[in-house]
Write a structure and sequence with these properties.
Elements lengths: L8 H33 L3 H9 L4 H34 L6 H34 L12 H29 L1
């Protein structure tokens, strides 16, 4: 007897955790975007003084960092949505549908995009932290995102192959 996918606790938890993550990421995008617009429209006088003492490129660098951060959040949001769609197909009992291979490939590109943006952002933020004392930078580049992207690209191929094998099997029956 096959297990009832509708009552699978792990899938249920995953679905709810993804919904929460999507909500948090969306809210973060909204807050960061509003803060960036507020910074541009209503500059803080003390921040303006500190920026005046810093190199002239500081404000454009801050805007670049904020825009890159927002782009990373948008890619993360899209990643979570794609993962949610895969979880739904697993819950429906049809994980080897061709659409999941495409979703996994998109998730691979998104993971690669977030990783590349992080690598691009780190030296810029490090430079910026040298000119703004209150900005503290911790961390560094990681190969985890690259490993995730490669894994997702491989899984996309596996799912494409699995979907093709299933179609062949159904065609012979």
């Amino acid at each position: 007897m096959a297990p009832d996918r509708r009552s699978d606790l792990l899938l249920t938890i995953s679905r709810h955790a993804l919904r929460i993550a999507i909500g948090i990421i969306a809210l973060t995008i909204l807050v960061v975007t509003v803060a960036l617009v507020a910074l541009l429209l209503f500059p803080n006088p003390s921040l303006a003084e500190r920026l005046a003492a810093a190199p002239s490129v500081t404000l454009p660098v801050i805007l670049f960092c904020a825009a890159t951060g927002i782009a990373m959040l948008v890619m993360s949001l899209r990643f979570a949505v794609e993962l949610g769609r895969i979880v739904r197909t697993v819950q429906d009992g049809d994980p080897f549908e061709p659409g999941n291979a495409d979703r996994l490939a998109r998730m691979g590109w998104l993971a690669l995009g977030v990783t590349a943006a992080g690598w691009l952002l780190m030296p810029v933020v490090s430079w910026l932290s040298q000119h703004l004392e209150e900005l503290s930078v911790q961390g560094g580049s990681s190969l985890g995102g690259l490993g995730l992207a490669l894994t997702l690209f491989i899984l996309a191929r596996v799912f494409r192959h699995g979907a093709a094998m299933r179609d062949d099997l159904q065609g012979t029956v």
